[in-house]
């Protein structure tokens, strides 16, 4: 099943310090029609969230600077006006409580590494679908 076609107006912020992983995500998201911005660490992601508009945040859990969890806490605390869907990426497997992260950070989903590009595209499409208001 292919994810639905999207408008180039949907902007995705990918916060991932692994260059190969971020390049693969960028390639697949752009191929699906999304505009993609890459942040190489949590501090850069937080700065971008304060200065630009995004439709979805895809963030790694462990990054230099601020962790993905710290970025989400800062966003929810200092920018409560941002109702940005969050997709968390983690290699920590079952160590993370998805329910805790959903209730405390408001994440939409947690993708365990390694994940397929299709899983990422489906998760992003669901987030975009939830936030897109029919005209």
Search tags:
single chain, 135 residues, alpha/beta, Rossmann fold, 5-stranded parallel beta sheet, 42% helix, globular
Q: Could you describe the 3D structure shown?
A:
This protein has five helices and five strands, in the order βαβαβαβαβα. The protein has one domain: Rossmann fold, CATH 3.40.50. Strands 2-1-3-4-5 form a five-stranded parallel beta sheet. By secondary structure, it is of the alpha/beta class. 42% of the residues lie in helices and 18% in strands. Helix 1 (19-31) links the parallel strand 1 and strand 2 (35-39). The longest helix has 15 residues, at 117-131. It has helices at residues 19-31, 42-51, 68-78, 98-105, 117-131, and strands at residues 11-15, 35-39, 56-60, 86-90, 109-112.
Q: Can you lay out the helices and strands and say which pair or pack?
A:
Layout: E1 11-15, H1 19-31, E2 35-39, H2 42-51, E3 56-60, H3 68-78, E4 86-90, H4 98-105, E5 109-112, H5 117-131
Parallel strand pairs: 1-2, 1-3, 3-4, 4-5
Helix pairs in contact: 2-3
